[in-house]
Write a structure and sequence with these properties.
Elements (H helix, E strand, L loop, with lengths): L1 H31 L6 E5 L6 E5 L5 E4 L3 H28 L3 H4 L4 H10 L1 H8 L5 H24 L7 H4 L9 H15 L2 H14 L40 H4 L14 E4 L10 E4 L2 E3 L7 E7 L2 E7 L8 E4 L2 E7 L5 E7 L7 E4 L2 E4 L1 E7 L7 E8 L2 E2 L16 E7 L8 H8 L5 H7 L8 E7 L2 E7 L1 E5 L11 E2 L7 E6 L5 E2 L6 E4 L17 H12 L6 H8 L5 H10 L15 H13 L11 H21 L11 H9 L19 H20 L13 E4 L11 H4 L1 E4 L10 E3 L9 E5 L1 E6 L7 E4 L16 H6 L3 E2 L4 H6 L3 E7 L3
Parallel strand pairs: 1-32, 3-7, 11-21
Antiparallel strand pairs: 2-3, 2-32, 4-5, 4-24, 5-29, 6-28, 7-8, 8-9, 9-10, 10-18, 11-17, 12-13, 14-15, 15-16, 18-19, 19-23, 20-22, 25-26, 27-28, 29-30, 30-31
Helix pairs in contact: 2-6, 2-8, 5-8, 11-12, 15-18, 16-19, 17-19
């Protein structure tokens, strides 16, 4: 017995020692990939010494003798901090995620291959102007110099993720940067999803279904089924779960994911300090690390500072000494889905405008981790690449014997968008910037500009030219063989949509269509947000940096302010006080809270939770009768539709009546039933005390690590979770998941914020949603996340002396003969 006990003790001690040794070994290799910022590296590819001065927040300030060396150093700095993210973004654009993630990434790879993101990027390299090609080459050399340093110094493979997802890191090429920009463009637009949804609504309810997503300014449109006489549709089936949110972010960005932003500026005469002010906050999916990276470059044209995206050698939103600029994805209709009829008995041919023609086909091989490689056949019609029917709900709207082709302004070779963005950050005036943006193709952008003389806004990017005779106007999938529906061409945005001298000294956009911009399409961003932003700007004659910050982090819901007075018009205080503990009393208490609420979506209040739950239940009850099972797919909230219904605009009040029942229900009855259902659900989850409920308990920002975020144990280290204020319609966007067990989870937001003050440029402020480093063990992995959550910022200066005085590390690059 004693001998057995001794051996058990020895075995236990041995296992403990082995476990500690294993943890120590893992820790050692993990921290080996943390870059040393106080270091000197001898590198080939630069012509003279370069300094990368790191601020307290790990922001690199790059000083070199020429632009080539500065872009080289930016590539090296990006790779130091975000090598895994850059590699994943590149793989997502190439359609090669399955090589490291396995079969789960096959759908993403399949779609990227069919869109031709990388193929078109390769074909676009020579289309860039000479300075841009030189910058791309220098940037690539810098990335590769750090990869060489990782290999020479055994620096933990450059990032700890590479131990769990082994990968041969190929050297960076200029086409890789262009491919990431293509991926960004494909991710910024949601037109494909919107068209499919419109078609599904039309199939589910031919008479009124499209009213849910339509705007009041739209011309009438035929029912989707009438476009394909005698066609058989699969119909709306039971809900098939899409890949979850985390899976969809395997590559940080995903086509049709969607993006937004606010951008506004006021002229010097409207500011307290006498210099123009500009604010910008691009809004994307929340990831860890975030998409953005702060940097300062000292170029021959002068210093520039602001937000970059690792893999792209440009300050996309920021300022120089003379100019400030901010980007907002323009909500233009840049995609059309065409339904192509396949020739019976011959899958390689389809119906063209003048008879049956051959698809353009080619085969590509996708390698899959742990499995056999898959060969896919890519087909393309005259309208564009054929998309996989199993993705984006396309199968639900395809007639039998048909496939779907996508026409997209960004789906072409010779794309000069990188040239436009590189020229933008080196412009000196608004006029220079507007001219620089002419080559932009995709993503189409509303670019807000400010210089010492004033402000302006430019709509830049390619727009499809459609026949005026088309009844669809790009709003819904259409027959690919019909000449009236086909694109006539792709043109730059007209100069009439550029305003460099606004009469009131103010320009502002949230992505919603501006007056006179109907040419860009009928789908638009939430118009209530645009109205709220204009109200915040117009409420003051004179603005300051602080008033711009207050507007940028504003969490008042304009939806709530617009809808509650009409939805609850017949419910406020209409009954005698009910006994405590009854459902009637709970409803009265909820209405009392909402009646005294100003619409602020504060994480500390119960009202945002009650309102959001009520509106979800209300929309579901209104549409369920008409569109049936499709209701499960209608996860987005449409406030314009709810307001039209309750105001009975064009007879929309009929939506409240449940056709299957004999009585005629009123909107007030439906509103009451929806509120009761919402309160019952919330009570089951949080208890009966309404005053104790908190919006922040469910509305939590989840910055998910695309690779490690779902791994048990590691997820607690790499994911960042924090309660947040705001909602889907607030200026400080905090977009919700809108499905699953917690539909209120905050999954999108302003991953970068900047406010640029040209009266006192060094007082300009910046913030990103996580931190500069992509290394989970770095203190800079999440050191800005709490500042971001609280609506705070950091300052960044173009003054070299200030940068060096506050430096926490200086990396020196010394040239060596090649």
């Amino acid at each position: 017995m004693v001998t057995l006990f001794r051996w058990l003790v020895r075995l236990t001690v041995g296992l403990i020692v082995a476990g500690v040794a294993l943890i120590a070994l893992v820790w050692y290799f993990a921290i080996r990939s943390l870059p040393a910022y106080n270091a000197t590296y001898d590198v080939a590819g630069i012509t003279s010494p370069v300094e990368i001065v790191r601020s307290t927040e790990d922001v690199p300030h790059i000083f070199g003798k020429n632009d080539h060396d500065v872009f080289f150093a930016l590539g090296l700095a990006h790779a130091q901090d975000r090598l895994f993210q850059m590699n994943v973004l590149r793989r997502a654009a190439q359609g090669r995620l399955a090589e490291i993630y396995g079969a789960g990434a096959l759908p993403a790879d399949d779609l990227a291959r069919r869109l031709g993101l990388f193929r078109n990027a390769v074909a676009s390299v020579e289309a860039q102007d000479a300075p841009t090609r030189a910058a791309l080459a220098a940037y690539s050399e810098g990335v590769n110099a750090w990869i060489q340093q990782v290999n020479l110094g055994a620096r933990g493979r450059g990032a700890p993720e590479f131990f769990l997802f082994p990968d041969e890191i190929s050297y960076w090429e200029p086409a890789d940067s262009l491919a990431i920009l293509k991926l960004l463009a494909a991710s910024s637009t949601t037109q494909l999803r919107r068209e499919v949804l419109r078609a599904r609504l039309s199939l589910a309810a031919p008479e009124r279904g499209q009213e849910v997503v339509a705007t009041t300014a739209e011309p009438p449109m035929p029912a989707y089924a009438t476009l394909f006489p005698d066609a058989r549709f699969a119909g709306v089936e039971r809900h098939v779960p899409h890949p979850d949110w985390n899976t969809g972010l395997a590559g940080y960005l995903s086509p049709s994911l969607g993006a937004s932003a606010n951008g506004w500026a006021v002229a010097p005469r409207r500011t307290a300090a006498g210099g123009a002010l500009l604010a910008n906050d691009p809004q994307f999916a929340l990831t860890a690390p975030g998409l953005w990276y702060l940097a300062r470059l000292e170029l021959a044209s002068g210093g520039v500072i602001g937000g970059t995206i690792p893999g792209i050698p440009a300050v996309l939103s920021g300022r120089s000494a003379d100019l400030a600029w901010g980007i907002t994805p323009a909500q233009i209709d840049d995609q059309d889905l065409f339904i192509e009829e396949v020739q019976p008995g011959d899958p390689d041919r389809y119906r063209g405008a003048n008879g049956w023609v051959d698809f353009t086909t080619r085969n590509e091989t996708i390698r899959v981790k742990g499995e056999a490689a898959r060969t896919i056949t890519l087909r393309e019609s005259e309208n564009g690449p054929i998309l996989p029917a199993g993705q984006l709900d396309i199968a639900s709207i395809l007639p039998a014997g048909h496939v779907a082709a996508l026409a997209w302004t960004g789906g072409q070779a010779g794309d000069t968008s990188m040239t436009a963005l590189m020229s933008l950050m080196q412009s000196r005036t608004r006029e220079d910037a507007a001219q620089a943006l002419v080559p932009l193709v995709a993503p189409a952008l509303n670019v807000t500009l400010a210089d010492k003389n004033g402000v302006g806004q430019v709509l830049a990017g390619a727009l499809p030219e459609r026949s005026p005779d088309s009844p669809i106007h790009g709003r819904m999938p259409q027959p690919g063989w019909s000449a009236v529906h086909r694109w006539l061409g792709v043109n730059p945005a007209p100069t009439t949509l550029t305003d460099l001298r606004p009469e009131g000294g103010v320009v502002a956009t949230t992505g919603a269509a501006q007056p006179g911009q109907q040419i860009v399409g009928f789908d638009r961003a939430n118009p209530y947000r645009q109205d709220r932003l204009r109200h915040l700007i117009d409420s003051r004659e004179v603005h300051s940096r602080d008033s711009f910050i207050a507007a940028q982090i504003d969490v008042v819901s304009p939806d709530a302010r617009a809808l509650l007075p009409v939805v609850a018009a017949e419910l406020w205080f209409t009954d005698e006080p009910a006994p405590q503990g009854t459902p009637e009393r709970q409803r009265q208490d909820a209405l009392s809270l909402l009646a005294n609420w100003d619409g602020t979506m504060s994480e500390h209040l119960p009202e945002p939770l009650i309102y959001s739950s009520w509106m979800r239940a209300l929309q579901e009850r209104i549409v369920q009768d008409e569109i049936g099972p499709l209701t499960q797919h209608l996860t987005e909230f449409y406030p314009e539709f709810i307001e039209r219904v309750f105001r009975n605009i064009n007879g929309a009040g009929e939506w409240c009546d449940i056709r299957q029942s004999t009585p005629v229900e009123t909107c007030t009855q439906i509103a009451r039933q929806a509120l009761d259902a919402a309160l019952l659900e919330l009570t089951d989850r949080f208890g009966p005390d309404l005053a104790s409920w908190r919006w922040g308990d469910v509305h939590r920002a989840r910055h998910v690590h695309p690779a490690l975020g779902d791994l048990r144990g590691l997820s607690y280290i790499v994911n960042l979770v924090q309660p947040t204020s705001g909602g889907d319609s607030t200026i400080a966007l905090a977009g919700m998941l809108n499905e699953g067990t917690n539909p209120y989870l905050n999954v999108t937001g302003a991953t970068y914020r900047g406010v640029y003050d040209l009266a006192d440029p060094d007082s300009s402020v910046f913030i990103i949603s996580t931190g500069q480093s992509g290394h989970p063990l770095s203190r800079h992995y999440d050191d800005m996340s709490e500042l971001w959550r609280r609506g705070e910022y950091v300052r960044m200066s173009l003054d070299p002396d200030l940068a060096r005085a506050a430096a926490t590390g200086v990396t020196r690059l010394e040239p060596v003969p090649e």
